[in-house]
Structure formats: structure tokens, C-alpha cells
Amino acid sequence: MELKYSAERAAQILVSLLKQHNIKKVVASPGTTNMTFLVTAMHDPWFEIYSSVDERSAAYIACGLAEESHEPVVLSCTGATASRNYMPGLTEAYYRQLPILAVTASQNYDKVGHLSPQLIDRSTVPNDVARRSFAAKVIKDADDEWADEIIINNAILELKRHGGGPVHLNFQTGYCKDYSVMDIKPARKIERVALADSNWPELPSGRIGIFVGSHTRMSDELTEAIDRFCGEHDALVFCDHTSNYYGKYRVAMSLPFEQQLHRLSPLKNIDLVIHIGGVSGDYPSATLRPKAVWRVNEDGEIRDLFRTLKVVFEMPELKFFTHYASLGGDRHSLLDEYKADYDLTVSQIPELPFSNAWIAQHTASHIPANSIVHLGILNSLRVWNYFPFPEGVRSNCNVGGFGIDGIMSTLFGAALADKNKLCFAILGDLAFFYDMNSLGNRHLPRNMRILMINNGRGAEFRLYNHLGSMFGEESDNYIAAAGHFGRKSPDLVRHYAEDLGFEYFTASGKDEYLSNLNRFLTPELTDRPMLFEVFTESENESNANEMLQSIRKNVAGKASQLIREVMGDKGVATIKKILGK
Ligand SMILES: Cc1ncc(C[n+]2csc(CCOP(=O)(O)OP(=O)(O)O)c2C)c(N)n1
Ligand SMILES: [Mg+2]
After folding, report:
1. Nearest CA owner, ligand 1 atom 12
2. Which pLDDT score, from 0 to 100, does residue 580 have?
3. Ligand nearest to the CA of 377
4. Whose C-alpha in 62, 137, 158, 345 is 20 to 30 A from the C-alpha of 460?
5. Using a 6 Å cutoff on CB, does residue 10 contact ligand 1?
6. Of the bound ligands, which one is closest to the alpha carbon of residue 379?
7. 402 CB near ligand 1 (under 6 Å)
């Protein structure tokens, strides 16, 4: 049988990515642990491989080769003490910024410390032998494959980043004996574009969406640049209440993306997503399936939320959008299509039970202009994301770490920054009681208003689609943590708030809520901060979530009923098969 490439996918990915990144020079030292990589490389005529028994010498050879050829050079060695001998050469490379990729092969790393022969601990490297150190693992499933693709791209890209230098890649092997692979499936190449580069890629044609994770406030200049970009390329901007983009092409993604029928929607089949901002608490956006992603951030890091990242632009967003919006324009057909679809979803919202979601539905659009709203983790952010705020209202949520522990404190800080701005916190009872000492702080300003939805527990864990719901009421013991903090006492928070000088309101039903709402939303600054405690039932929270998330499923149900009438059961099955449902 002809022997060619290793069946070990990590070795294939390394070879595939080295080729795609135009790296061909290798200095190889002998051994077993680096066999899967070396055999795969030596059977591909692309590579130019030199042998050096002595790893110390190999690293210096790589220095000379890299210096003179102006090309990156790969080092490959086995286990035992081999890699330790790279140190002098890599130290030289570090201080001279020579692009050398030291690929040190290793057994399964979990065995470190268990007296395995020929296995040393390479988890820390001296500061001045490599710009960064990475570890690729043996691939057992799709997640491992994704991780290795990212790690190896990352290692290769570091060779030339910020002036460049040596990089360490610890490469684990399973000693696969199968070398019968004739063709290698190409791995996904990720590129990085820096501001000074001249070869910026062309924008692909097709549907373009800008996805904005949590983002600091945008300047008017950036908003205008994004609008020009969207106008020129017929793009739109997917946002939630943490995105902080308020330009012409903003679309609220949460409610439509949560709908079942939208699995069929071409609106999710975006060809290119331009990814800006940080962590997003908008879980439904994970249903976006872009063919390609371009990430734009000054940090320049590979952050592959959608798993189709192709290019990272290490630069300010303004530079990116200005570059790709040279012509400007007024195209908006994708936006119109999206809005029509969105309006259809909204028009079918059923009457919701009294819950955080119902409160959001009847409050969000009445928040006074120029206010700031901070939303609680997780249920508050989710259900308020379904309903837009009026223009001029800015909103935020602690999605950096998703803690329920400092929501009111964070708002407190925001309220101190501008004491003339109304600052609203909307959060649940567990989050409230966690952080309640902040309300007694002597610096607390009067522009703070708290809307606390007291359902007596972490209702999140009793939602119909949460894992915790399968344990029913038993979840209340330890998962949803019910029964604490006075068990929805009508007096506890009232006393605390009033004694601290808050204006306090309460409601346990729709009419009572609405009768207090006007006062709570007084657009002017009042004498005292306010606290509105609303009592709801966690069952209603769950029902409201379910109703909002299945608005369009009902339409899908009707559609399949219609198809069934016309084409019979077989027709429905065929269509489902085509749609992959
Ligand atoms: C500091 C911290 N501990 C635990 C969690 C896990 N957690 C996420 S949501 C949640 C429940 C919050 O309950 P509540 O504030 O009453 O909101 P509800 O779900 O009832 O709307 C918890 C405990 C967290 N996010 N942060
Ligand atoms: Mg709660």
C-alpha cells in the first residue's frame, strides 16, 4: 500500500495551514513524536526540509535561514529533552524578531507528571524565547478540530504580528500509524489585516450583516461611517440592548431570531458577517449562520464566535468602515425585507400573562428620552431585548462576566457620571438582594430608578426550555434558590427602600402596574430615587417566554397544515427533509 499523509487530522491541519500561509522551510530533528507531522510534510513537494540532529544547531540554522530568505522557518523536534535545546537559538530569534515557528511534538499532555518516559512539561516558556506559546491537541471530534484550526492559525499569524518573532507550538500526537491518506481536506485559513497593510481583501458579494456585540458608546463619526457602509453595500446592523449603535440600519435581532419559522428565513443566511464589539448576551444570535465572518477590533485577536471567521482586521472600526464605504449610497432592500419580517412577528404577539416580559412590552417604548437603562442577567436582558427603546435611550448590561452581583452598583456608577440623566435598572429579585447594600451608599444620587421583578426565585431556572425545568418544583431547592429574602414579603423591600429615602411603588397585577408607571417614568428629575417592586409568578415568566419564542412557530404550523391538506403527509415529510428540519 502506498504511504503518504498521516491520518492524524492535527498534522494535516498544520501542513495545510503552513502551505496556505505560504510557509515552506522546515528544519527537522529526528524522533518518533514528530513523525505524523514530518511524514505528512515530507510527502508534499511544497516543503523544503533540512535535517539537523542537534536541536540547538537546528534553531540557529533557522535563524540564518529566516534572516536571509525573509521567510518564516518551521522547527520540528520530538519529546525527551529535544525542545530544551531550542532555547539558545530561539532567544537569538526573539531579540532579533525572526519569524521561527518551533513545533515541539508531545505525547498526550494529560500524562505530564505521571512518570511517562520522554515527556517533559512545556506549559511555561521563558518570556524571551517566544512571542506567544500555543498547544494543539489530538483531534477527537469537531470541537477539537475547530480548536486546533484556530490555535495553528493563531501561532502562524503571530510570527509576523507587531514586528514578528519566534512562536512556540506544542503539538500533541496520538502516534497514529495510518499513513494511507492521499489527499488532505484544506483547513480554514484565517488572515489578519493591519492598518498599514496594502492588501486589504475585497468585500465578497452577497448579503452582508454587521453583528454588534456589547459595545461602548459609538461616536457620531463611527455611526455615520457604518451607515455609509450599509448604504453602499445594502447591509444591515444586528443589535441588541447592549450594542449601542443607533444609526439608520439598526435592526433588533432577538425576537425574530428566536422564532422557529426563521430557520427557513433567508434573513439568517447572511454571506458575510462583520463582527464588532464584545460578548453578546443575545443567545438567539447564535442561530446566524454566516458563510464568512470578518472581525474588526483594535485588539486584532482571533475571536471565532460564529466559527466561520476568515479575516481579522486589527484596526479601529472607523478606519475599516471608512475604507469599505468609499462610495456611500442609499441602498436598503435587505433592511426593508428584515423590517417587514420583524413587523409581521411583532403584529402576532399574543396577550402575555403578567410577567417581566409583559412589563417590558408595556414599558420599553415609554422610557424617557436620554435615559440610561441597565438590564439584569439573564431573563431581564432576554425579555427586554424583545422590545425596543425609544430613540435617545441608551442601554447596557453586565455581559462581560454575566454576574447578577453588581447590576445596581454598575448603574450607580453610571448615575454618578451624569447626575442629570435618568438611570434605570431592571432586574430580578436574586440580583436585587445580592447587591442591595449599594442602595444604602451615601453617594447614591436621586437620578437612580430601580424596577425589580420579584418572582421569589431565579425564574430563569424554571423556564420551560431551561434544563432546570425538568426537575419541576424540585429546582426551587438549590437551582432556582427559592424561599430566601422574605419569600416575596410585601414589606421587606418597602421598609428598606423607604428608610433609605427612596420613593417606593409596588404592583402585583397589570392594572396596578400601569397605574404606577407614569410616576415611575416621570421624565424630569424627582427629589428622591425610586424603587418599583413588582410581584410576578414564575410560571407566568415561563409562559410569557414560551409565547414570545413561538410566535412564528404557529405560522409554521399553519403552513404545514396547508401543505398537508394539499400534498398529504408524504408531502410534508419531503419538504421537511429538504429544509433539514
Ligand atoms: C454572581 C452570579 N452568581 C450566579 C449566577 C447564575 N445566575 C444567572 S441568572 C440567575 C438568576 C437570577 O435571578 P433573578 O435575579 O431573580 O432573575 P429572574 O431569573 O428571576 O428573572 C443566576 C443565579 C450569576 N449569573 N452571577
Ligand atoms: Mg427572580
Report:
1. 458
2. 42
3. 1
4. 345
5. no
6. 1
7. yes
**Fold match flag (9-175 vs 208-347):** yes
> Distance from the CA of 232 to the center of ligand 1, in angstroms?
42
Is 60 exceeded by the pLDDT of residue 576? no
Report pLDDT digits (tens) over 182-205.
999 999 999 999 999 999 999 999
Nearest C-alpha neighbor of 449 from the set 360, 356, 528: 528
Pick the CATH number of 356-548 from 3.40.50.970, 3.30.1330.30, 2.40.40.20, 3.40.630.30: 3.40.50.970
CATH classification (class only), 208-347: alpha beta
CATH class of 9-175: alpha beta
Q: How far is the CA of 377 from the centre of ligand 1 (A)?
A: 6
Q: Which atom of ligand 1 is nearest to the CA of 432?
A: 15
Q: For the chain, which residues make up each domain, given as ranges?
A: 9-175, 208-347, 356-548, 550-579
User: CB of 456 closer than 6 A to ligand 1?
Assistant: no
Tell if the pTM clears 0.90, that is, is over it: yes
CB atoms within 10 A of CB 471: 15
Going from the C-alpha of 341 to that of each of 14, 190, 256, 286, 447, the distances in angstroms are: 44, 34, 8, 19, 38
Q: At 48, is the pLDDT very low, low, confident or very high (cuts 50, 70, 90)? A: very high
Q: pLDDT tens across 124-162, in order?
A: 999 999 999 999 999 999 999 999 999 999 999 999 999
Alpha-helix runs per DSSP H in 268-394: 317-324, 333-347, 356-363, 379-385
